Amino acid sequence: MNYDDAIGEERRKMISLSGAWFIVVTLTLSAFVLFYAYFLDDNKYITANIYSKNFAFIYVLFISTLWVVRTLNPSYLDKNWMRNASILIFINGMIWGGVVFCYIMENRLLGPVFLCLIVLFCGVVSGYTLKLITVYCLPIFSSLLLATFLKNGLLQTMYMSIILSGVWFIIKTSDSLIKKRINKEIATSLILEKKAYNAHHYAQTDYLTGVFNRRGFENEFKKTVSNCLIQQKPFAIILVDIDFFKKINDTFGHIAGDDCLITVADKIKSCIKFYASSVSRYGGDEFIIIINDATSAKVEMICHDIKKSINESSLKLIGERCISVTQGAAICNNIKSVNDIINDADKALYEAKENGRNCYRIAE
Ligand SMILES: Nc1nc2c(ncn2[C@@H]2O[C@H](COP(=O)(O)OP(=O)(O)OP(=O)(O)O)[C@@H](O)[C@H]2O)c(=O)[nH]1
Protein backbone atom coordinates (compact mmCIF):
# COMPACT_ATOMS: atom_id res chain seq x y z
CA MET A 1 0.00 0.00 0.00
CA ASN A 2 1.50 3.36 -0.97
CA TYR A 3 1.34 6.63 0.93
CA ASP A 4 -1.79 7.99 -0.83
CA ASP A 5 -3.67 4.69 -0.42
CA ALA A 6 -2.79 4.62 3.29
CA ILE A 7 -4.05 8.18 3.77
CA GLY A 8 -7.22 7.36 1.81
CA GLU A 9 -7.77 4.28 3.97
CA GLU A 10 -7.36 6.30 7.17
CA ARG A 11 -9.74 8.97 5.97
CA ARG A 12 -12.30 6.33 5.09
CA LYS A 13 -12.04 4.97 8.63
CA MET A 14 -12.49 8.48 9.91
CA ILE A 15 -15.59 8.95 7.78
CA SER A 16 -17.19 5.85 9.32
CA LEU A 17 -16.17 6.97 12.79
CA SER A 18 -17.45 10.48 12.31
CA GLY A 19 -20.68 9.06 10.89
CA ALA A 20 -21.15 6.83 13.93
CA TRP A 21 -20.20 9.65 16.26
CA PHE A 22 -22.59 11.99 14.51
CA ILE A 23 -25.49 9.56 14.84
CA VAL A 24 -24.82 9.10 18.57
CA VAL A 25 -24.61 12.85 19.14
CA THR A 26 -27.70 13.47 17.06
CA LEU A 27 -29.73 10.81 18.82
CA THR A 28 -28.77 12.13 22.24
CA LEU A 29 -29.48 15.72 21.30
CA SER A 30 -32.76 14.90 19.60
CA ALA A 31 -33.92 12.97 22.64
CA PHE A 32 -33.08 16.00 24.72
CA VAL A 33 -34.80 18.41 22.30
CA LEU A 34 -37.86 16.19 22.03
CA PHE A 35 -38.14 16.09 25.76
CA TYR A 36 -37.65 19.85 26.05
CA ALA A 37 -40.02 20.65 23.22
CA TYR A 38 -42.92 18.56 24.35
CA PHE A 39 -42.73 19.16 28.02
CA LEU A 40 -41.29 22.63 28.49
CA ASP A 41 -41.97 24.88 25.48
CA ASP A 42 -45.21 26.34 24.13
CA ASN A 43 -44.10 27.92 20.81
CA LYS A 44 -42.63 24.77 19.33
CA TYR A 45 -44.16 24.87 15.83
CA ILE A 46 -43.13 28.44 15.00
CA THR A 47 -39.43 27.95 15.78
CA ALA A 48 -39.40 24.53 14.18
CA ASN A 49 -40.38 26.13 10.90
CA ILE A 50 -37.44 28.58 10.95
CA TYR A 51 -34.82 25.94 11.75
CA SER A 52 -36.18 23.42 9.28
CA LYS A 53 -35.47 25.93 6.47
CA ASN A 54 -31.85 26.32 7.59
CA PHE A 55 -31.27 22.61 7.86
CA ALA A 56 -32.94 21.84 4.57
CA PHE A 57 -30.73 24.44 2.90
CA ILE A 58 -27.55 22.91 4.33
CA TYR A 59 -28.59 19.40 3.37
CA VAL A 60 -29.32 20.37 -0.20
CA LEU A 61 -25.96 22.14 -0.35
CA PHE A 62 -24.17 19.17 1.12
CA ILE A 63 -25.68 16.57 -1.17
CA SER A 64 -25.29 18.67 -4.32
CA THR A 65 -21.66 19.49 -3.50
CA LEU A 66 -21.04 15.81 -2.91
CA TRP A 67 -22.34 15.03 -6.37
CA VAL A 68 -20.39 17.86 -7.96
CA VAL A 69 -17.18 16.69 -6.29
CA ARG A 70 -17.85 13.14 -7.37
CA THR A 71 -18.47 14.17 -10.96
CA LEU A 72 -15.43 16.42 -11.14
CA ASN A 73 -13.01 14.03 -9.50
CA PRO A 74 -14.40 10.50 -9.22
CA SER A 75 -11.15 9.06 -7.82
CA TYR A 76 -11.72 10.87 -4.55
CA LEU A 77 -15.00 9.17 -3.83
CA ASP A 78 -15.44 5.54 -4.76
CA LYS A 79 -18.77 3.84 -5.33
CA ASN A 80 -19.04 2.16 -1.93
CA TRP A 81 -18.12 5.34 -0.22
CA MET A 82 -20.94 7.14 -2.03
CA ARG A 83 -23.43 4.49 -1.01
CA ASN A 84 -22.33 4.57 2.62
CA ALA A 85 -22.35 8.35 2.70
CA SER A 86 -25.83 8.42 1.14
CA ILE A 87 -27.14 6.02 3.78
CA LEU A 88 -25.58 8.17 6.50
CA ILE A 89 -27.05 11.32 5.01
CA PHE A 90 -30.44 9.68 4.74
CA ILE A 91 -30.38 8.45 8.34
CA ASN A 92 -29.15 11.80 9.56
CA GLY A 93 -31.71 13.58 7.42
CA MET A 94 -34.47 11.60 9.09
CA ILE A 95 -33.08 12.27 12.53
CA TRP A 96 -32.54 15.93 11.83
CA GLY A 97 -35.98 16.20 10.32
CA GLY A 98 -37.34 15.00 13.64
CA VAL A 99 -35.07 17.30 15.56
CA VAL A 100 -35.95 20.30 13.42
CA PHE A 101 -39.61 19.61 13.69
CA CYS A 102 -39.39 19.52 17.42
CA TYR A 103 -36.74 22.19 17.76
CA ILE A 104 -38.65 24.88 19.41
CA MET A 105 -36.16 26.56 21.68
CA GLU A 106 -35.33 30.19 21.05
CA ASN A 107 -31.85 29.32 22.19
CA ARG A 108 -29.11 31.27 20.38
CA LEU A 109 -26.32 28.99 21.54
CA LEU A 110 -27.74 25.62 20.59
CA GLY A 111 -28.82 26.66 17.07
CA PRO A 112 -25.34 27.49 15.74
CA VAL A 113 -23.90 24.50 17.58
CA PHE A 114 -26.26 22.19 15.71
CA LEU A 115 -25.42 23.85 12.43
CA CYS A 116 -21.72 23.51 13.16
CA LEU A 117 -22.11 19.83 13.86
CA ILE A 118 -23.54 19.39 10.39
CA VAL A 119 -20.77 21.46 8.87
CA LEU A 120 -18.19 19.43 10.73
CA PHE A 121 -19.79 16.25 9.48
CA CYS A 122 -19.87 17.58 5.92
CA GLY A 123 -16.23 18.60 6.16
CA VAL A 124 -14.96 15.33 7.55
CA VAL A 125 -17.10 13.20 5.27
CA SER A 126 -15.99 15.02 2.18
CA GLY A 127 -12.44 15.37 3.41
CA TYR A 128 -10.25 13.40 1.10
CA THR A 129 -7.91 16.37 0.86
CA LEU A 130 -7.73 19.51 2.89
CA LYS A 131 -8.17 21.52 -0.30
CA LEU A 132 -11.42 19.69 -0.93
CA ILE A 133 -12.66 20.41 2.56
CA THR A 134 -11.92 24.10 2.03
CA VAL A 135 -13.85 24.15 -1.24
CA TYR A 136 -16.61 22.29 0.52
CA CYS A 137 -16.86 24.29 3.68
CA LEU A 138 -16.30 27.80 2.41
CA PRO A 139 -19.75 28.27 0.82
CA ILE A 140 -21.43 26.65 3.82
CA PHE A 141 -19.46 28.72 6.30
CA SER A 142 -19.99 31.99 4.46
CA SER A 143 -23.68 31.41 3.92
CA LEU A 144 -24.07 30.60 7.59
CA LEU A 145 -22.25 33.77 8.57
CA LEU A 146 -24.27 35.87 6.15
CA ALA A 147 -27.53 34.38 7.35
CA THR A 148 -26.57 34.96 10.96
CA PHE A 149 -25.51 38.54 10.23
CA LEU A 150 -28.78 39.37 8.46
CA LYS A 151 -30.90 37.66 11.06
CA ASN A 152 -29.12 38.21 14.34
CA GLY A 153 -26.63 41.06 13.94
CA LEU A 154 -22.88 41.54 14.25
CA LEU A 155 -22.33 40.15 17.75
CA GLN A 156 -24.01 36.86 16.93
CA THR A 157 -22.03 36.67 13.67
CA MET A 158 -18.75 37.08 15.52
CA TYR A 159 -19.82 34.41 17.91
CA MET A 160 -20.67 32.13 15.00
CA SER A 161 -17.29 32.84 13.34
CA ILE A 162 -15.49 31.69 16.48
CA ILE A 163 -17.42 28.43 16.45
CA LEU A 164 -16.77 27.91 12.74
CA SER A 165 -13.05 28.60 13.22
CA GLY A 166 -13.08 25.94 15.90
CA VAL A 167 -14.74 23.53 13.49
CA TRP A 168 -12.19 24.36 10.82
CA PHE A 169 -9.36 23.87 13.29
CA ILE A 170 -10.69 20.43 14.26
CA ILE A 171 -10.90 19.36 10.61
CA LYS A 172 -7.41 20.63 9.85
CA THR A 173 -5.90 19.05 12.95
CA SER A 174 -7.55 15.71 12.30
CA ASP A 175 -6.13 15.74 8.77
CA SER A 176 -2.59 16.50 9.89
CA LEU A 177 -2.91 13.88 12.64
CA ILE A 178 -3.79 11.30 10.01
CA LYS A 179 -0.77 12.31 7.95
CA LYS A 180 1.56 12.20 10.96
CA ARG A 181 0.35 8.75 11.96
CA ILE A 182 0.72 7.40 8.44
CA ASN A 183 4.21 8.87 8.18
CA LYS A 184 5.11 7.17 11.45
CA GLU A 185 3.62 3.86 10.29
CA ILE A 186 5.46 4.05 6.99
CA ALA A 187 8.71 4.86 8.78
CA THR A 188 8.17 1.90 11.14
CA SER A 189 7.40 -0.48 8.30
CA LEU A 190 10.48 0.73 6.40
CA ILE A 191 12.61 0.08 9.48
CA LEU A 192 11.11 -3.41 9.86
CA GLU A 193 11.65 -4.10 6.17
CA LYS A 194 15.26 -2.98 6.50
CA LYS A 195 15.73 -5.14 9.60
CA ALA A 196 14.29 -8.18 7.79
CA TYR A 197 16.55 -7.45 4.83
CA ASN A 198 19.57 -7.10 7.14
CA ALA A 199 18.73 -10.35 8.94
CA HIS A 200 18.44 -12.15 5.60
CA HIS A 201 21.65 -10.52 4.36
CA TYR A 202 23.67 -11.32 7.50
CA ALA A 203 22.42 -14.91 7.57
CA GLN A 204 23.95 -15.42 4.14
CA THR A 205 27.11 -13.36 4.43
CA ASP A 206 30.54 -14.29 5.73
CA TYR A 207 31.30 -11.86 8.54
CA LEU A 208 35.03 -11.60 7.81
CA THR A 209 35.22 -11.28 4.03
CA GLY A 210 31.77 -9.97 3.14
CA VAL A 211 31.20 -12.63 0.45
CA PHE A 212 28.44 -15.27 0.71
CA ASN A 213 28.86 -17.91 3.41
CA ARG A 214 28.05 -21.60 2.99
CA ARG A 215 24.29 -20.96 3.34
CA GLY A 216 24.51 -18.15 0.80
CA PHE A 217 26.33 -20.47 -1.55
CA GLU A 218 23.61 -23.12 -1.24
CA ASN A 219 20.98 -20.56 -2.26
CA GLU A 220 23.05 -19.24 -5.14
CA PHE A 221 23.75 -22.77 -6.29
CA LYS A 222 20.04 -23.66 -6.26
CA LYS A 223 19.25 -20.53 -8.30
CA THR A 224 22.00 -21.34 -10.79
CA VAL A 225 20.84 -24.93 -11.22
CA SER A 226 17.23 -23.87 -11.87
CA ASN A 227 18.42 -21.23 -14.36
CA CYS A 228 20.53 -23.85 -16.03
CA LEU A 229 17.45 -26.10 -16.27
CA ILE A 230 15.24 -23.36 -17.71
CA GLN A 231 17.70 -21.65 -20.04
CA GLN A 232 19.75 -24.74 -20.91
CA LYS A 233 22.97 -22.78 -20.40
CA PRO A 234 26.10 -24.31 -18.84
CA PHE A 235 27.57 -23.00 -15.61
CA ALA A 236 30.92 -23.51 -13.90
CA ILE A 237 32.27 -23.94 -10.38
CA ILE A 238 35.76 -22.81 -9.39
CA LEU A 239 37.23 -23.82 -6.02
CA VAL A 240 39.96 -21.47 -4.81
CA ASP A 241 42.24 -22.65 -1.99
CA ILE A 242 44.92 -20.48 -0.37
CA ASP A 243 48.28 -22.21 -0.47
CA PHE A 244 49.85 -23.07 2.89
CA PHE A 245 47.38 -20.96 4.75
CA LYS A 246 48.07 -22.76 8.01
CA LYS A 247 51.69 -21.69 7.69
CA ILE A 248 50.65 -18.06 7.20
CA ASN A 249 48.59 -18.28 10.36
CA ASP A 250 51.38 -19.96 12.29
CA THR A 251 54.12 -17.62 11.06
CA PHE A 252 52.43 -14.24 11.00
CA GLY A 253 49.52 -14.78 13.36
CA HIS A 254 45.74 -15.04 12.95
CA ILE A 255 45.26 -11.34 12.23
CA ALA A 256 47.60 -11.63 9.27
CA GLY A 257 45.66 -14.76 8.27
CA ASP A 258 42.40 -12.80 8.40
CA ASP A 259 43.95 -10.03 6.34
CA CYS A 260 45.01 -12.63 3.80
CA LEU A 261 41.46 -14.06 3.60
CA ILE A 262 39.98 -10.57 3.11
CA THR A 263 42.51 -9.74 0.38
CA VAL A 264 41.89 -12.99 -1.49
CA ALA A 265 38.11 -12.45 -1.31
CA ASP A 266 38.50 -8.88 -2.64
CA LYS A 267 40.76 -9.98 -5.48
CA ILE A 268 38.34 -12.73 -6.51
CA LYS A 269 35.43 -10.28 -6.41
CA SER A 270 37.20 -7.81 -8.67
CA CYS A 271 38.25 -10.55 -11.12
CA ILE A 272 34.69 -11.85 -11.57
CA LYS A 273 32.71 -8.60 -11.33
CA PHE A 274 32.08 -8.35 -15.09
CA TYR A 275 30.59 -11.85 -15.28
CA ALA A 276 27.26 -13.21 -14.10
CA SER A 277 28.79 -14.84 -11.08
CA SER A 278 29.03 -15.05 -7.29
CA VAL A 279 31.70 -15.95 -4.76
CA SER A 280 31.25 -17.61 -1.38
CA ARG A 281 33.53 -18.71 1.41
CA TYR A 282 33.21 -22.47 1.29
CA GLY A 283 35.42 -23.42 4.23
CA GLY A 284 38.33 -22.03 6.30
CA ASP A 285 40.67 -20.97 3.49
CA GLU A 286 38.57 -22.14 0.56
CA PHE A 287 36.37 -20.03 -1.72
CA ILE A 288 33.86 -21.24 -4.29
CA ILE A 289 32.87 -19.30 -7.39
CA ILE A 290 29.79 -19.86 -9.56
CA ILE A 291 30.05 -18.65 -13.16
CA ASN A 292 26.78 -18.55 -15.10
CA ASP A 293 26.67 -19.02 -18.85
CA ALA A 294 30.19 -20.47 -18.74
CA THR A 295 32.55 -21.59 -21.47
CA SER A 296 35.92 -23.22 -20.85
CA ALA A 297 37.68 -20.18 -22.36
CA LYS A 298 35.84 -17.89 -19.96
CA VAL A 299 36.63 -20.10 -16.97
CA GLU A 300 40.29 -20.31 -17.94
CA MET A 301 40.50 -16.54 -18.28
CA ILE A 302 38.96 -16.03 -14.83
CA CYS A 303 41.31 -18.58 -13.22
CA HIS A 304 44.25 -16.89 -14.87
CA ASP A 305 43.15 -13.42 -13.70
CA ILE A 306 42.68 -14.65 -10.13
CA LYS A 307 46.10 -16.32 -10.04
CA LYS A 308 47.80 -13.21 -11.43
CA SER A 309 45.96 -10.76 -9.24
CA ILE A 310 46.66 -12.73 -6.02
CA ASN A 311 50.31 -13.30 -6.90
CA GLU A 312 50.70 -9.56 -7.32
CA SER A 313 48.87 -8.59 -4.18
CA SER A 314 50.56 -6.98 -1.24
CA LEU A 315 49.49 -7.56 2.35
CA LYS A 316 50.11 -5.18 5.23
CA LEU A 317 51.49 -7.73 7.68
CA ILE A 318 52.95 -10.30 5.33
CA GLY A 319 54.37 -8.16 2.52
CA GLU A 320 54.33 -8.27 -1.27
CA ARG A 321 54.06 -11.19 -3.70
CA CYS A 322 53.95 -13.80 -1.02
CA ILE A 323 50.56 -15.47 -1.30
CA SER A 324 49.19 -17.78 -3.94
CA VAL A 325 46.11 -19.87 -4.57
CA THR A 326 45.38 -23.17 -6.24
CA GLN A 327 42.17 -23.51 -8.26
CA GLY A 328 40.10 -26.42 -9.50
CA ALA A 329 37.22 -25.83 -11.91
CA ALA A 330 34.46 -27.86 -13.50
CA ILE A 331 31.85 -26.94 -16.09
CA CYS A 332 28.32 -28.33 -16.00
CA ASN A 333 27.10 -28.78 -19.57
CA ASN A 334 24.12 -30.97 -18.89
CA ILE A 335 21.80 -31.32 -15.96
CA LYS A 336 22.90 -34.89 -15.26
CA SER A 337 26.26 -33.67 -14.03
CA VAL A 338 24.87 -31.10 -11.50
CA ASN A 339 25.41 -33.34 -8.48
CA ASP A 340 28.94 -34.22 -9.57
CA ILE A 341 30.13 -30.74 -10.43
CA ILE A 342 31.51 -29.85 -6.98
CA ASN A 343 33.24 -33.23 -6.73
CA ASP A 344 34.73 -32.70 -10.18
CA ALA A 345 36.00 -29.24 -9.19
CA ASP A 346 37.40 -30.73 -5.97
CA LYS A 347 39.23 -33.45 -7.90
CA ALA A 348 40.64 -30.82 -10.26
CA LEU A 349 41.79 -28.80 -7.25
CA TYR A 350 43.50 -31.84 -5.80
CA GLU A 351 45.27 -32.50 -9.12
CA ALA A 352 46.40 -28.88 -9.29
CA LYS A 353 47.80 -29.14 -5.76
CA GLU A 354 49.61 -32.30 -6.76
CA ASN A 355 50.97 -30.36 -9.67
CA GLY A 356 52.80 -28.00 -7.36
CA ARG A 357 50.14 -25.39 -6.30
CA ASN A 358 49.83 -21.75 -7.49
CA CYS A 359 48.11 -23.06 -10.60
CA TYR A 360 44.66 -24.08 -11.84
CA ARG A 361 43.09 -27.06 -13.46
CA ILE A 362 39.78 -27.38 -15.27
CA ALA A 363 38.09 -30.81 -15.13
CA GLU A 364 37.52 -32.42 -18.53
N1 LIG B 1 43.13 -16.53 10.42
C1 LIG B 1 42.14 -17.38 10.17
N2 LIG B 1 42.40 -18.69 10.03
C2 LIG B 1 41.41 -19.55 9.76
C3 LIG B 1 40.07 -19.15 9.65
N3 LIG B 1 39.31 -20.23 9.38
C4 LIG B 1 40.13 -21.28 9.33
N4 LIG B 1 41.39 -20.90 9.54
C5 LIG B 1 42.60 -21.70 9.54
O1 LIG B 1 42.87 -22.11 8.20
C6 LIG B 1 43.74 -23.20 8.26
C7 LIG B 1 43.39 -24.16 7.15
O2 LIG B 1 44.39 -25.10 7.15
P1 LIG B 1 44.54 -26.22 6.02
O3 LIG B 1 43.13 -26.73 5.70
O4 LIG B 1 45.53 -27.23 6.45
O5 LIG B 1 44.98 -25.42 4.76
P2 LIG B 1 46.45 -25.09 4.22
O6 LIG B 1 47.41 -24.85 5.29
O7 LIG B 1 46.22 -23.96 3.27
O8 LIG B 1 46.80 -26.38 3.44
P3 LIG B 1 46.58 -26.57 1.92
O9 LIG B 1 45.15 -26.28 1.64
O10 LIG B 1 46.92 -28.03 1.67
O11 LIG B 1 47.49 -25.64 1.20
C8 LIG B 1 43.61 -23.80 9.66
O12 LIG B 1 44.82 -23.61 10.36
C9 LIG B 1 42.50 -22.99 10.32
O13 LIG B 1 42.75 -22.74 11.69
C10 LIG B 1 39.80 -17.75 9.83
O14 LIG B 1 38.68 -17.29 9.74
N5 LIG B 1 40.86 -16.91 10.09
TrEMBL record:
Pathway(s) of this molecule: Purine metabolism; 3',5'-cyclic di-GMP biosynthesis
Q: Where is the GGDEF domain?
A: 233-364
Stated EC number for the protein is 2.7.7.65
Q: Which reaction does it catalyse?
A: 2 GTP = 3',3'-c-di-GMP + 2 diphosphate
Report which superkingdom the organism of origin falls in: Bacteria
Name the residues that span the membrane: 20-39, 51-69, 81-104, 113-141, 153-171
Supply the InterPro entries for this chain: Diguanylate_Cyclase, GGDEF_dom, Nucleotide_cyclase, Rev_trsase/Diguanyl_cyclase
Instruction: Name its co-factor(s).
Output: Mg(2+)
The cross-references to Pfam families, in alphabetical order and at most eight, read: GGDEF (PF00990)
Q: Which GO terms describe its molecular function?
A: diguanylate cyclase activity; GTP binding; lyase activity
| Alphabetically ordered keywords of this record | GTP-binding, Lyase, Membrane, Nucleotide-binding, Transmembrane, Transmembrane helix
**NCBIfam families documented for this protein:** GGDEF
Q: In its UniProt entry, what is this protein called? A: diguanylate cyclase
